[in-house]
Every structure is written in structure tokens, then in C-alpha cells.
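Dear colleagues,

As part of the handover before I leave the project, I'm documenting each prediction I ran so the next person doesn't have to rerun anything. This entry is a single chain, and its sequence is reproduced below.
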Amino acid sequence: MSRQVKPGSKPYRAQLRDRLAALGFPEEAIPAKVAENLIVECGVPPRTAWRLASELSLDVAAHQYNAVTGDPRAGMRGTRIWEYEQWPDRGVRPTVAALRVLAQVYGTSWKSLLGLRDLEQLPAKDLAEYHAEAEPVAAQPPEPVASPPARAVALVETRPEEEIGAGALDDAILLTKTNVDDAQLDDLWADLDFLGGAYTRTAPQSILGQLAVIEERASALLKGRQRPKQAQDLLLIGAKSTAMMAWIAGDLGRYRLSRELNSAAWLYTQYADDFLARRWVRTSQARVAFWAGNGVESAKLAADGLNYHVGGRLTDAPLILAEARGWSSVQAEPQVLDAIARWTTIENPDLGAGGDDAFFNITKDRRHYMAGTSLLSVGQASAALREFTTAREAYEKLSLEHRWEAMDPMIRIDTGRAHLRLDDLDGAAAQVEPVLATDVGKQPDMVRAMLKILAAELAGPRWRSAATARNLAEAVLDAHASARP
């Protein structure tokens, strides 16, 4: 290849096509050569290789599959084709009938979609059918169709009638085989719930490591075979654990890792096909994006999360407030005030974070703090100060085990900033000085970020001539510098 690209990737395939065309291969012969290269040189399994050689996504391949059968409403989905591609290590074994249709979609023979390891796991009757066709003729890829043709029956006419559906019972029995039991799943969920509750009072690095163990256990189990409900549970455990890891990695300032973990979490949710899981991930993504400096992206992620309706299992408040906070980063006052108004109409003062989603259902002090920071960023200092006061009162009413320790310095710092906006330097100093007397280095990355913002505001034109402001700014900068990881 002329430049280094990942073997099997789309750029790799594009370069391979160019090389084959330069060697004089006709266009219709190129997909087969690409598939051959992917299998031999890149180690890509045959069914995946032929789909990639045809440049089809899973969903597009499923759509064309349904078109070939003559019924676009047929049940083939991209996730099922993905499961076919994972077999025999995991996933679902494709039937010969399914392979014949896929072969037409990809423009090859169904035998080309099976490798040696596949053949070793085929039922005897399928292996016999494989050997019975000594000289398979490659099928041509279907032409795009604007409307479905009459339902085709040619696919089954070549098979003896007694063979139709002969393997259905064997296929169904496979669904009863599993490498996981309910006790294992209950343990994994219990561990997740425990770590979600322990997060507020335990070193984040420790929680991150324990969550990684849960994700690894779920991932390892998914490589085997489970009943469908068990597989979905494992996917949900993978989604929640990686979303929580992303959240905590953000607390540690490891935003690149956070983004990667959230991408993994979103992939889990796509296969779990669960709205609550999508809310978990969008909540984490919005939070990480904001603290990484991408406020507008954060607002859009939060707004998208609200599209996944889950009843009372996860309140809308965290996502609405994340949307407001995201827009506040660009001083988009109308959007901020609209979001705060929506939150106010649903805010339940008695709502506490609890149950299975205590990690994502944030407590009252954190809700009012988020509202306050959003209002402060768009010049609503008096309204922000009221929210910070409520946040402080709610924080102090919490039992020690439910307090997130970072909230104390964060409320104090932003309350101090609100006092500055209201020309109350003494009030700001009274709020901030207790923070400076603590070990800021133990606090999450966002505490250090807020100290930096406070120092910049104290050094601004309004307070530059005030000795108290200069001394306070110097002390804040010293605390910020000492807290650098």
C-alpha cells in the first residue's frame, strides 16, 4: 500500500481496489479479489470479508437480504447479520438458506461464505449439502429495486421439500445452551449498584479499576453462548459499566479515555437495543463533553438523550440540566433559560438519588448546583446565587455516605463567583477561603478547572486594583498549581 492504513479498513480496501484496477481486473471481478485478500492477508472471516468487499453496512446488507427474499418487511436485521458473522466463536449459526440469500446479496456462492472453522461446526446435513455442490456458481448481486417484487420461491425450489425446516428444532435447542446463569448476572448487577453508591465516598481510581473488572467479566461471557435475555443483560452490564467508567475517567481529567469508553458504551447499547441504556450513555457523554470543553456538543448529546423515554426509571432532570449547562458555555441565554424553565416544572424537591440508577439520578444539591452554574454563565447572578444557596442547604442535609465530597468546594467556588458578579468581594472571599485551606489535589479535575476560572475573574479589570482580590487570586493560583496531576 502507498501509505500505511489499518489492514481491512475502508481506506485499505479503497487502495486495494485501485491496485486491482491498475492491474487490469474488470470491475465485476474486483469484489471477489478484495474478499480473498481480506480473508488471506487480513484474517477477516469469510462472511464479514464478503460484506466489506461489497461495501455494505450491516443495515444495508439486511435491507438487500429482505429485497432478495421478495419481502422488504421480512425479519432480517443488521444485528442478526452481525451475529451470523460472529459464529462459530459466538453469535448465531446461519442456516444454509440464509447463506444462499447472503451469497446473492454479495455476488458470490454460499460456499464462499464458510471457512474451515465454520465447516467443522456445521451440522452433518449442512456439510453434506456443502459437498453435494462441487462446482458452485457465483450469484450476481441484486439490482437496486424501487419496490418489492412478487415473493420469490426460487430459493427453496432447489431443495427437496422434506429438507425445508428440518433444522429448526436443532436451531431452537441451541437457544437453551448458555455459559451464564442468573446468579452470575445478579452478582454483576449487585456489584454495579454497589460501586454506583460507593462512588461518592471512594477514591475514583479505585472505583474505575473495579468497574473495569465488571466490564471484562461481561465481555468474556459474551464470547460464549447465552439465552437471548441473558445476552441482553450482559450487553446492558457492559453499557452501564463503561458509561460509569467514562464518567469517572472524566473526573480524573482523562478525557480521551472517557471518550473511548463512552464510544464503547454506546456500541453496547446499540446491540442491547434498550432506551434506558442509551440514557445512561448520553448522560455520561454530555458530562464528559462539557468538562472537556465541548459545551455545544454536550448540549446536543443531552437533548438527544431526552428522546429515549423510560418513564420514571431515570428522571429527565440530569439531561435537561446538562443541556442548559452545555448551552451556557457559549452564553446562549435563550436556550439556557428555556432548559431551566423545563427543569423547574419537573423538579421534585423530595427526589433523592436512589435505586438501581443512583449513579445517574443525581442528588438535589447537584441539580441546583448545575442550574446555578448555567444561570451564572449567562449573567443571571442573583438567580444563580439562590440556586447555590439551595444546593448548599441540600448538601448539608445529606448523610455523609450520600455526599459527593467535590460538591462542597464546587458550590463554594461558584457561590464566590456569583458574589463577585454582584460586587461583593468580601462575600466571595468568605466562600473561597475554606476551599484554599484544603488539599485541592485530591479533588476531581473540574474543581481545579473552576479554580482557574475564578483566578481569571479575580484578575480581571473590575478587581485588579483591589488588594484583597489580588491576594485571593494569588492564593487561588497557588492552590491550582499545587493540585496539578
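Residues 228-251 form the longest helix (24 residues). The chain is about 65% helix and 0% strand.

All the best with the project,
I.
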